[in-house]
Amino acid sequence: MLIGPGKSLDPDKYFIIVPDQLGNGLSSSPSNAASEQARSHFPVVTNRDNVAAQYRLVTEKFGIGNIALVVGWSMGAQQTLQWAVSHPDRVERIAPFCGTAKTTPHNAVFLEGLRAVLTLDAAWNSGDYDGQPVAGIRAFARVYAGWGFSQPFYKQTLYRQMGFGSLEEFLTGFWEKRFLRRDANNLLSMLGTWQLNDVGATPEFGGSLESALGSIKARALVMAGQTDLYFTPEDIEAEAALIPDARFRVVPSVWGHQAGNGLNAADTQFVDAEIKNLLAS
Amino acid sequence: MLIGPGKSLDPDKYFIIVPDQLGNGLSSSPSNAASEQARSHFPVVTNRDNVAAQYRLVTEKFGIGNIALVVGWSMGAQQTLQWAVSHPDRVERIAPFCGTAKTTPHNAVFLEGLRAVLTLDAAWNSGDYDGQPVAGIRAFARVYAGWGFSQPFYKQTLYRQMGFGSLEEFLTGFWEKRFLRRDANNLLSMLGTWQLNDVGATPEFGGSLESALGSIKARALVMAGQTDLYFTPEDIEAEAALIPDARFRVVPSVWGHQAGNGLNAADTQFVDAEIKNLLAS
């Protein structure tokens, strides 16, 4: 949504790297790991692990010294903040949006609900399934649906703009489809990464979110979706206030958490324009 | 929480009737119905059905003509609004709080998620279970937990005020306990009533929420919890604006939907004082 000629992440101007996160199905994941680490045996992954792997990719594979911008949405925002904390002298700018540096207790409850649903399906079988636990993934998707967009998004039937004729079609054609192409153990692995998300847990900060965010040297553009139900503007603004050189912006949108996901042109233009400003600074 | 000497609903001043709603386990419910209507064979129940039964209780059993006040929280608020629409000449005042006259699309999505979870448990067995589907009810409770209180409630660890030492204790000791004493078919029956909630579906209003709310003759005090995630202040305020003689008030609280449930003294005092004012008018 942000990559392309004339967009903020313009390949004619920048060398752009888009790594898949651990557990997401392309990078090492429960679904593709060697047998002793496959499926339910996949190790617990933190965002520090993700950033450690990405750091090696950037420095060892590409030989890059400084990074003009680290940017990401949602769990990508988590990794962006971890980058700025782990490598303060490498990262010139960051633009995390719709994500936090530490998973909030309410967000953890939301994730706990998702975990309870997926693991409830008998077909899940403690992760040693033959076929995917389809019913569990469908229920997971339906629970997620209430969190992923805002109350006014549903009231205004904005899913019609996405081509869905009814609420049920949207639940099936967007939400269930979105998760049915995933592997259940991969979903659970990423839930675990999300639950553990906390830049303050970076060893040198001894558990202090304040110290970790206060150590960031990058110029930061921190954005939140106005109606995001699990990465709330209030939570994100409170964290942004702990970053020395941060500009906090709210995407004026009723698309909830999905305001940052490229589904709505106005939201995407807002995010794109803000990142252009950041890159020009 | 509101009934007692010196409180708004003072038994020394008023004759107070507290009916259990259909499906809730005391009134006729899947768990206690005669065999041909028991369990999954229990008929679909609407709030109009609830109010029709309550109307007969009030008029035929007690011979009461006019009602000074109909009051209720959550699904009780739904029934309160249905009372005012179905019997405009019987009801002098209403005080619905933390509930709507018509279930919103987002609220329906939340309920759809809950239904998907409970019916996912193999032990549910399409409603013909021997023992309760305990794992399904636990997962149901964990999903509900994210919706029932607000994001800042969890951030401020206000569950400690309720005697729970940790988030996990709260999920288990409050949420799971709250639903494990319920019958699964009863829960599903009430979910169905909630999903169908719409005063506009009262036959003489032909589906028009506006006409139904516009017909209310009672003096109305309509309250919302400031941080309620599924009966939002915005949704409730929009409905209150359609009631001719309505006062809209927001309970200033981070207790989410539970602001109306008597768990927090400040919220309860706010609601109680407002109802006292209404009764004095």
CATH homologous superfamily name of chain A? Answer: Alpha/Beta hydrolase fold, catalytic domain
Global Rg of chain A: 19 Å
- Tally of individual domains of chain A: 1
What portion of residues of chain A belong to β-strands? Answer: 5-15%
Strand order of the largest sheet of chain A: 1-2-3-4
Q: Order of helices and strands of chain A, N to C?
A: HEHEHHHHHHEHEH
What helical percentage do the residues of chain A reach? 40-55%
Determine and state the CATH class of chain A.
Answer: Alpha Beta
CATH topology-level fold name of chain A: Rossmann fold
Distance between the first and last residues' Cα of chain A: 22 Å
Main sheet record of chain A: 4 strands, parallel
Mean pLDDT of chain A: 97
Oligomer: homodimer
Please give the most extensive interface between any two protein chains, plus how many residues each contributes: A-B, 39 and 39 residues
Any guess at the CATH architecture of chain A?
Answer: 3-Layer(aba) Sandwich
Task: Return the structural class of chain A.
Answer: alpha/beta
E-strand count of chain A: 4
Q: What features would you describe in this structure?
A:
- With 281 residues, chain A is an alpha/beta fold.
- Chain A has a single domain (35-280), classed as Alpha/Beta hydrolase fold, catalytic domain (Rossmann fold, 3-Layer(aba) Sandwich).
- The first copy, chain A, is built from 10 helices and 4 strands; from the N terminus they run H-E-H-E-H-H-H-H-H-H-E-H-E-H.
- The first copy, chain A, has helices spanning 47-61, 75-86, 105-118, 134-148, 151-155, 167-180, 184-196, 209-214, 233-240, 265-280; strands at residues 70-73, 93-97, 219-225, 246-251.
- The first copy, chain A, has a 4-stranded parallel β-sheet, sandwiched between helices.
- In chain A, strand 3 (219-225), helix 9 and strand 4 form a beta-alpha-beta unit.
- Chain A starts with 46 loop residues before the first helix and ends with a helix.
- Chain A binds chain B through residues 104-110, 112-113, 116-117, 120-122, 135-136, 138-139, 142-147, 149-155, 157, 167, 171, 229-230, 232, 234-235, and chain B through 104-110, 112-113, 116-117, 120-122, 135-136, 138-139, 142-147, 149-155, 157, 167, 171, 229-230, 232, 234-235.
